[in-house]
Amino acid sequence: MRKQTLFVLAAWLSCAGVTHAGISFDKNNLRVGSVVQQTVRGVVVAADGTPIAGATVRSQATARATTTDERGEFSLQASTGDTLLVSYIGYAEQQIPVTGTNLRITLDDASNALDEIVVVGYGNQRRADVTGSISSVNSEDFNRGIVTNPGQLLQGKVAGLNVSIDSGEPGATQDVIIRGVGSLRSGTTPLYVVDGFALDNTATGVASNPLNFINPNDIEKIDVLKDASAAAIYGARAANGVVVITTKKGRSGITQVNVSGSTSISSLARKMDVFSADEFRSQVAAVGGTLRDGGASTDWQDEFTRNAFSNNINLSVNGGSDRFSYFGSAGVDDQEGILNNSNLRRYSARLNLTQNAWNDRFKVSLNLAGVRTENQRPLITTIVSDMVRSNPTFPAYTDGQPTPVLSGDQFNSLVREQLYSDNANNNRILANFTPSVEIIKGLTYKLNLGVDYSTTDRDVQNLPFAAREDEIGSLNLNYTDNTNTLVENYLTYELNQGNHQATLLAGHTYQETFYKLRTWAYEGFPSNGIEPRYQTEAATRMLTSGTGTEAVKNELQSFFGRINYGYADKYLLTATMRADGSSKFGGNNKYGYFPSVSAGWNIGKEDFMQNSPFDELKIRASWGRTGNQEIPSKITQASYIDSRADDDTYPLHEGVSSLEDYPYGIVYTRLANPDIQWEVSTQTDIGVDFSMFNHRLTGTVDYFSKVSGNVLLEVVPADPIQPTTTYWTNIPGMEIKNQGVEAALEYTSDRSARAFGYNVGGNISFIKNKVVNSPYAVLTTGAAQGAGQTGSTINGYINGSPIGAFYMREFIGIDEAGFSRFRDVNGDGQILDNDRAVVGSALPDVVYAFHLNFFYRNFDLGLNFNGVAGNQIYNHTAMSNFTKGNLAMSFNTTDKAMEYPAEVTNNTNEVSTRYLENGDFLRLNNATLGYNLNPAAIGLAGKVQQIRLGVTGQNLFVVTDYSGFDPELNTGIATGGIQTFGIDYFTYPKVRTFVFSVNVSF
Amino acid sequence: MKNKITIALLTLSLSWSCTDLEEQVLDESLTGSGQAEIISGAIAPAYGMLPSTFRHTRYFGLQLIPSDEAILPARGGDQWYDGGMYLDAHSHNMTPSNALVRDSWNYLTRNISRTLTAIEALTPLAETNAEAAAALYEMKALRAYLNMLMLDSWGLVFKKESGAETSEILRGQDAIDYIDSEFLSVVDVINTDRGPGRMTQAAVWGFLAKLHLNAAVYRDPYGTPDFTAEDMSRVITYTDNIINSGGFSLSPEYFDLFNDDNHDNPELIFALDLRGILQNDHSRWAYWSMSGSLFPRPEFPNADGTDGPAITPEFYQTWVDAYGDTDPADADARFYQKNVDVPEALQDLTGFSPQNDQDRYICVAAENFEIDRGIIRGTPWGPRKDSDGNFYRCDGGYRIYAVGERREANMEYYVNHTLDIDFTANNGYASGYRVSKYQFSHTSPDGNNASSVDLVLLRYAEIYLMRAEAKLRLGDNAGALADVNAVRTSRTAREPVPAALNAIDLDIMYRERGFELYWEMARRTDMIRFGHYEDTWTEKTDTDVHHRLFPIPQSAIDGASNTPGYLVQNPGY
Predict the structure, then answer these.
(1) What pTM does this model have?
(2) For the complex shown, is ipTM > 0.90?
């Protein structure tokens, strides 16, 4: 009750329009005048006094720069009062005021992680003061190579974060799972916050990953808020964790121009081991099939894939005066996929501005990004299926044209490639404007206004093909608009009094998202050389099934507050509260309340730890609640519509012969449930952060337990006589439990006075997931596809087993008659679908990654490995394609089809453990060799600051038992909105890429 | 200037940002768009859903596959496996998660709900509006009919008078009484002239007869049915009403009952009115069984069969047993209708294959082409596609060839439908004799949708057969024989007209129903009523009487799991 009163008060404060009169600004914010330049000399050394060679020293006033020599010495034109910026990789940057002409500058190791600034919701904190579980990744630690989106930057970088990139398509979709899957429905996606602006995860109409619109080159750092203490300030959208992205900002005094370019070549990383033409001839005969021999020898995987070339160029400029700074960038990223007609092109520009005034009491910043993404996609499922199953004895081309029909009446997909196209163009602007003013000392008011506009047009078409009567041409047009607007007001009060340190935060936020989709579908186009998308008027028929409109508006209004208290930097306490109100929920439960508390103890600062090996040691504990509102809109309200759709109308009069004269039926399409509540995750976390041996060894270990309740599902009502088969409701008592331990460790060698240095590190997470108190016998999902698979499912979630579990029959071999044998699980003597059982899980028990970085003089080498263990993969591709029956019909297979000599060719390819494979893998995700060319060595001293040449190999090897293209995948098809995992259904194959890059800074 | 702008922005932002969070629904009207008229708007969805409810993968398949008149193996090792739902249905090993049973249940229950929605809308109007009252009677009759199907398949009915309340579940005699009273409440006031596409008085009489014919089974689904004289005499009363009304007559051509223009056939009492307008005006009863290599309509290259169910060898044997040395095709016009006029010289395919028979075709204009009908044995004839997927043509039409197997083979041999079919050795694409009972509609461009063939749910012949059976069960063999022969000898349009029978008993009655009503969703109910459901036939050895009723789908049991005791699984599952 008191909480509610507090929030009502906050609402009043916020909504009543408390404005801030009496603000005035210092207009004189530019210094003028000239100063005398002189030669400043100095030496740069490490903490132990050894000189550092190759460090960059730069004047803030003039941007002149130089590098230190072998003895660590430099000389530079600068003036008294100027500031020198001294940096060297692996060390913290120093700002040294010019106080004389002979300076001694000591650089500290950058590994002093606890001094790092962490971006928390609605503010920043020193790492040492953080009581929640937050992992930060800075730009220099991001994955290198062709990287299209933030998920790829982070893969393997954060303990407890499982990033699974689902295919080899440029900008592929990915599963980003923070601390286990907490929901049955689609939507494990965390909340992404870019420079304080919370993105909406609604589809933008681009079929690949919607986060591709953020240029990774513009990202300065990413903070991952993992536990409820850190995330609860984002309330109802934080149950899947929060990823906070901070883009690069300008720095006063320096004008730095950075140009980087890369070119890369990608190819199919790992072919599927299907039979060659000669093997095929003998194998078809061996299974007693009818060999259809086209007389050729074709490697269809070669025919359908290519060496793909990609180019990326980025230009950025940043700088500013002491009260104004800017960062501007422009980038072009042009990626080819290894399948034909598979491309992703992104043109991006960004401008980040900051202006301070009124003795720095007034600040305003603007972040503005404009992006155009052009995505071309092939008919992936068909192409991937055909590249592994097509008869290898048939020629790909006849008389220079694709052979139209292959054996078995199979239409050659090389022809389809010429007919089919899928082009999506997205234009998106993300901007936020944040003025803030310090009203009285310590009390700051901040406004955040943001918009995210996105429009996408996507044309999917098949050209007509005169040679075939049934290829009459088709077109689907899709226009998607997304608008996301944000208004936030918040007050921060900072108090520093002796040993007491406190920060108080209170605010209000209002966010509105609007999604609009319009689609048209046509068929029947003339073969006149004009693409269907440019002549919709020529279509013979508009299809009602692909034509329509959706428009959805959601509002979220929230009140939030946080108290951070620290005593003597040793004892830390954080409490947060957020009340989220959402238009998605019904009148009975508009608001959800998401509290958290956490505490930290910097034991390392206690006197009794003076002589311990620990430089820092902190114990953290937190508890909190976060919500999930990723459910469809409108589900709390009943709806009935007037419809003339198929099942809703009927001819009521004789003689009626057109739909216009059919009646409209009045049809209920949805049942009301105004009681629907938020899904709530309750998370407890206990963690330790430490730093030892002069900060060379740092690490963090967390135990967490996350329990998601109030599970929201679309389920069958108790009374079967209902207008709709299902309705949405919270399932009483049902919970999804995730428990785990995660750890990260990093060791950095002593680099002072050594030409050679290294750091090694890694992280590992162990997660156990299970469903409890489910009233459902089994929630099946992952619909098997293809002929004869209607109604078959692959995943099934039951009590005591994890989400992502595989639920199917256990294959135990081939019987004497040549048919499959399955284990009679319930012992009733029959093999029925009640003999299905949980036989494994698609989600790994262990996710790990490690990296090795070496530095030698101007060379550096970084190796990033990642892997998973304990999971299985359902090889649907093999179930569909690699059967003895297919081989007998002269379709190509791998030797999996020949596994059982006694098997007959008409044995049924049922969903079973026969196609379940071990999903463990270890990948050399990326390896980069870099060389920092000394500009002086090529006569560019003073003109060019840094030249870096690099070569990166991505996906250099994978250690796996999996027989498909790659073990990292998720291409299952969900049933009933329940998410599916670990199914390989004609997944776009993974690529191996070599990237050559140049980076020049002026 | 700047601070003014800032203050303006602050004020603006604060005034924007207050909301009551009422959800704005933009893309749908929660109260209807006003395009619907209240009476037609109420009844159209209740009727309109029926074609989907009776789809082959739902109620039609649910009745067909568990009986001895159809079997659907996983053909070629992959086609139609579909999670084992047809295998388990046929062998009477269904589990509550069987998708065929689930989908049938979901559509039937939702269809019942649509009749309830209509009844709720029409009831207040009916007192003053005769048209609303007439519509209300149809909806009550339709609800009772759909509930009777629930009773037949699951042994229960849902009694629900208001959307706001929870259905009352009735079984056994209570269920029979409820359906009976619902039919009786409208039978004297319902229309007599809107058939066959709508519920009429004759349809209600017919369904009342059906209810009482099966009441002994419905009363005690697992026991030996005890047919009461009262039930049988009521069957006779209702069937008499129809026959005496003079409104119907038996079709001289049996297959006309299942053609595009069957809507006007005077034998139809209740049928779903399809006019080739809607996607769900479907041809699925036509294409399901036919060869996937057969293209039935030269105008539409995308129309083909699916190699779905065939008849069991045992069901075929009932024809052979009845006609002895005479081939059933030469004894009974209902068994087969020859439409493709293949000259004698081309009929022998010995030594030929689709690879060397280029000149062995007949030339037929597209609109004149019809595939053979009835039970299809051996090799069908139809149009053939060239390697580009276009039909071979000839002067004035299309070349009609013996059909080559193009699904499991590359036209190396002909499709040849054989008697033998089972789940393992004989599960090829062509295994089993097929049923071409329903016409491939001339209005369906893909063989699936936009068909004009009305889906027959009750016809006059069955009225005679029900009366015959009731008479027989009451000991009036002569009366029964006369009714059965009335049907047999009515198909006079084409030779061979089935000969009149000399005698009748229950076995012959059962057999005759099989000949007249095969693949019309009657067989499963007949097998139970005549005590044959626990017999053994191909791939079916189960004898558990509990399997006469289907399992209640697990999804429904799960949905009701928070209301213990409400929806109880049928015994044996």
Answers:
(1) 0.87
(2) yes
